[in-house]
């Protein structure tokens, strides 16, 4: 299809939408009523197998033509409607035609699967609503006269994180471009550490403590609010390093909108999370949170339902105090605070510009612990501050908050999907009371349309099928705490997510992998049973079709469970300060006085790598001086050589003063252009590539389990043998 033809189609669609007749309410209501009646008829009309297959083919062809003609917002909305029609048609058929169970075994497994499908369908439709029209808010400029700019307090709450991590964020905060007489930086130390207090005194940074740790991070911030008086509060987790331009870009909307209570910016990470690290997909596959910060928050912004995420955000003090400060009734105090602000008519906003970057969780156990806290917090909100009934919210806001609250309940449905075909393979249970071909005729349009639509909506932020891997890794660990918190919301407690650790060696986390291993072995057993059923079917076509259907489903589950096992293979991380791959102009000065032009390959708070124009004869441990450039600015730092090979040299900074640490941050982490270049800078989504990629990880997980099992058996045998009494 030529670009000219696509342009003509798009122009015709825009002309149709812009007709004057649509400005009259009567025509709007008439069009809506006719469309709704047509939509309902499409959903509920019964069709034969042949006609249902034809329905699927026609809708697939329509969706394909739309994706080829245009990718604008109208095209995405049409894809959503096609997907919703196919999914609701499947749901209507599922409820009316497939639940006539004949025994309690069929009913138990069948209704369990039906409930999981209803949850998945609800979250699908809620996500469509949320992502229908991202606002794509642009920055608002500050007034030219900086003497009119408001006062800002920067809060950096910390508890037990490494002081080196806190120090890096604090020195970067000193570089914020804001009038110094209206900027105050405070480290809020719930760990009450003398070393951190001494650093803050030397660096000219405020240091605040309190007598207890009540209500954890929320209580820490509320205690600081009582001791400070800035008109605005910028909050950064102690591992999130802001760029110099953060305040100037973030504060403009507060000047423009007096009712704006909070503005959130993305959480960007310069280190890989355990899934990225252990599967080696960092900067190649969007991480788990990129969909939320790349699309969901931008879409929530349209509905004035942006969530506060606890860091990289600015809050108007007056409005925060109107809701009683940071909420303490939930362990996700940030989201609840935003909910309270929205419920009293205040606005929240999202600016999809990366203005800070932080550390991701290093190990799978820490990653799971963090997600459990989020899940518990959203369950508390669902139970005690249900967005469907809380006063003051608009319908669109209720839907956005409901979607966020329901998201973390995917644990049980995901486990159901990973075991559902085993009900037939192990127990002969028929969870669908329908012919296999009819099931496929209804299931395929539902699943494939959802994939096509989400590819168009989410392709930049989440690759196809990766959602199943992310959810499967966390499902078992989220299921119990979220359901328990929903029943008893007062038992959830806040836990700090540790950052900044190292892993001295690679290892396989047998404890965390146990649920994935059990699921993997069950599905592998199911595969063999499915093959056996086909081979012993005696030509029974119905049995063969049913067995093949469940065998294909089980094979899919083996791949997903295998990939989950692969995630438990922790890779070593020897650097306590992760390095950022970024090229900065530099020169290297030797003690002899010679200077060499070069550029960085990466940097961290402790050192950097240099790429020279050729090999350089320099001894390890030698003291050198490296200059870093930003435009016409040059800063010089002492360092010792730690590595020298070919044209690459590794340096470790040597005895930097606090002032030098500040200047280093200015030339590296504080650069305004750094994170913008890395934002959503992954390999484009390709469903076929994603299938091959996840398939490889599934196979890797199976072989990893075999290898580690062999090691464990060998080690156990060695211990038993070593305890045998010596032969005389």
UniProtKB/TrEMBL annotation:
Catalysed conversion reaction: [(1->4)-beta-D-glucosyl](n) + UDP-alpha-D-glucose = [(1->4)-beta-D-glucosyl](n+1) + UDP + H(+)
Cofactor list: Mg(2+)
SUPFAM superfamilies xref list: Nucleotide-diphospho-sugar transferases, PilZ domain-like
Record GO biological process: cellulose biosynthetic process; UDP-alpha-D-glucose metabolic process
Pathway membership, UniProt: Glycan metabolism; bacterial cellulose biosynthesis
Membrane topology label: Multi-pass membrane protein
Localization annotation: Cell inner membrane
Top enzyme category: transferase
Biological role: Catalytic subunit of cellulose synthase. It polymerizes uridine 5'-diphosphate glucose to cellulose.
Protein's name according to its UniProt entry: Cellulose synthase catalytic subunit [UDP-forming]
Protein source organism: Orrella marina
Lineage, highest ranks first: Bacteria, Pseudomonadati, Pseudomonadota, Betaproteobacteria, Burkholderiales
């Amino acid at each position: 299809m030529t670009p000219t033809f696509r342009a003509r189609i798009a122009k015709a669609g825009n002309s149709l939408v812009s007709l004057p007749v649509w400005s009259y309410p009567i025509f709007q209501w008439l069009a809506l009523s006719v469309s709704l009646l047509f939509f309902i008829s499409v959903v509920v009309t019964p069709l034969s197998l042949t006609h249902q297959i034809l329905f699927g083919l026609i809708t697939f062809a329509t969706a394909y033509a739309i994706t080829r003609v245009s990718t604008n917002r109208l095209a995405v909305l049409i894809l959503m409607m096609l997907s919703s029609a196919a999914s609701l048609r499947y749901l209507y058929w599922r409820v009316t035609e497939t639940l006539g169970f004949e025994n309690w075994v069929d009913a138990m497994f069948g209704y369990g699967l039906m409930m999981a499908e209803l949850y998945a369908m609800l979250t699908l439709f809620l996500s469509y609503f949320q992502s229908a029209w991202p606002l794509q808010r642009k920055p608002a400029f500050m007034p030219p006269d900086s003497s009119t700019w408001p006062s800002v307090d920067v809060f950096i709450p910390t508890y037990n994180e490494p002081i080196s991590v806190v120090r890096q964020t604090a020195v970067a905060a000193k570089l914020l471009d804001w009038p110094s007489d209206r900027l105050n930086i405070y480290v809020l130390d719930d760990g009450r550490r003398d070393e951190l207090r001494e650093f803050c005194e030397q660096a000219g940074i405020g240091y605040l403590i309190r007598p207890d740790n009540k209500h954890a991070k929320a209580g820490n911030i509320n205690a600081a609010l009582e001791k400070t008086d800035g008109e605005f509060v910028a909050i950064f987790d102690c591992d999130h390093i802001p760029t110099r331009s953060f305040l100037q870009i973030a504060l403009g909307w507060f000047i423009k909108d007096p009712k704006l209570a909070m503005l959130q910016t993305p959480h960007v990470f310069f280190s890989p999370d355990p899934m990225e690290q252990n599967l080696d997909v960092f900067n190649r596959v969007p991480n788990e949170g990129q969909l939320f910060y790349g699309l969901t928050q931008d879409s929530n912004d349209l509905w004035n339902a942006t969530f506060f995420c606890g860091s990289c955000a600015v809050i108007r003090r007056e409005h925060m105090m109107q809701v009683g400060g940071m909420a303490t009734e939930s362990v996700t105090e940030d989201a609840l605070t935003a909910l309270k602000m929205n419920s009293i008519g205040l606005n929240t906003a999202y600016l999809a510009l990366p203005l800070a970057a932080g550390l991701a969780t290093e190990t799978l156990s820490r990653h799971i612990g963090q997600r459990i806290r989020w899940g518990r917090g959203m369950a508390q909100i669902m139970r005690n501050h249900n967005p469907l009934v809380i006063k003051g919210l608009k319908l669109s806001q209720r839907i956005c908050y409901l979607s966020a609250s329901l998201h973390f309940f995917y644990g049980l449905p995901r486990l159901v999907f990973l075991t559902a075909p085993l009900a037939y393979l192990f127990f002969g249970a028929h969870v669908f009371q329908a012919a296999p071909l009819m099931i496929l005729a209804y299931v395929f349009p539902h699943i494939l349309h959802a994939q096509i639509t989400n590819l168009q909506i989410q392709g930049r932020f989440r690759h196809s099928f990766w959602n199943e891997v992310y959810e499967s890794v966390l499902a078992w660990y989220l299921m119990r705490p979220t359901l328990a918190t929903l029943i008893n919301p007062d038992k959830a407690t806040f836990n700090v997510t540790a950052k900044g650790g190292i892993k001295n060696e690679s290892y396989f986390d047998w404890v965390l992998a146990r649920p994935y291993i059990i699921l993997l072995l069950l599905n592998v057993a199911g595969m063999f049973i499915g093959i056996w059923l086909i081979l012993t079917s005696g030509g029974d076509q119905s049995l063969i079709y049913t067995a093949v259907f469940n065998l294909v489903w089980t094979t899919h589950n083996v791949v997903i469970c295998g990939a989950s096992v692969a995630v438990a293979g922790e890779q070593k991380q020897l650097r306590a300060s992760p390095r950022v791959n970024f090229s900065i102009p530099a020169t290297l000065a030797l003690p002899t006085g010679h200077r060499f032009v070069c550029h960085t390959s990466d940097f961290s708070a402790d050192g950097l790598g240099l790429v020279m124009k050729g090999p350089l004869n320099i001894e390890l441990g030698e003291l050198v001086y490296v200059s870093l450039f930003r435009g016409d600015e040059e800063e010089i730092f002492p360092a010792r050589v730690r590595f020298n090979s070919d044209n690459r040299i590794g340096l470790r900074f040597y005895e930097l003063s606090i002032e030098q640490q500040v200047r280093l941050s200015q030339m590296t982490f504080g650069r305004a252009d750094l994170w913008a270049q890395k934002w959503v800078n992954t390999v484009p989504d390709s469903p076929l590539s994603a299938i091959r990629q996840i398939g490889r990880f599934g196979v890797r997980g199976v072989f990893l389990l075999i290898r580690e099992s062999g090691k464990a058996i060998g080690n156990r045998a060695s211990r038993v043998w070593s305890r045998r009494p010596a032969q005389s």
